[in-house]
Amino acid sequence: MAVLSVFGSLSAATYTRMRDLLLKTVLAQPTAVVVDLEGLAFEWQTAVAVFRAVWNQVADWPGVPILLAATDRADWPLPGFPSVTDALAAVGEPPRRWMVRMPLPVRGSGEFARLAAEETCRIWGLADLAEDAADVADALVGLAARGVRPTVVFEWWQGMLVIGAGEDVVVPCDPQALRCAAIGASRCGWSTTWSDGTLVWAVLDR
C-alpha cells in the first residue's frame, strides 16, 4: 500500500501537478493509495475535480483503490476516513491479476510487441483477442518508443486485457494519436512514471 502525504495548497494553479502525482502513484499498482490530506490546504471544487478526474481514468485499470484520510467530510467523490490508520484498515484483498512485462529491442520493437501479444494471448487462452491485441501493442509501442528502453506490458483481470507500452523518457501526450493507436479499445490513457518515463495503455474488453 502507498500513503501519499501531500502538503501545501491545491488550487487551479497546482491541479495538474496533483493529478500527475496521483496518476504516477496509482500506476505503480500498490494494493491501495491513501492520500493524507492533513497538511493540504485546498479549494473544494478543485480538490473534487482532481480526485474525480484521476479516478475516472484509473477505475477500470489499474483499478487501485484511492482513499482519502484526515477528512470528516462525507461528500468526497472517493471514500474518506478520519485518519490514515482508519483508511488502511479499510483496504481489502486485491483481485487476482495476470501480468507480464517484457523489454523490447530498440530496432523492430513494434514487430516484437506484436509477437509478444499473440503469444501472451495464446498462453492465457485469449485467442479471440490476439489479433486486436497485436495491432494495439504495435501501435502503442510505435507511439511511445524513443529508442531508449522500450517495454510492453500485458495484464488480464476482471475480463479486460490491458496493453501498455513504456519508455524511459517523457513522451509528450498526443490525445489524437493515442486514440488512433487504441482503435478497437474501450479505454486508453497516458501518464508519466516515477522513473521519469512514460506509459501509454489501452483496454480491450472480452
Automatic annotation (TrEMBL):
Residues 1-92 form the STAS domain. This is STAS domain-containing protein. It comes from Saccharothrix espanaensis (strain ATCC 51144 / DSM 44229 / JCM 9112 / NBRC 15066 / NRRL 15764).
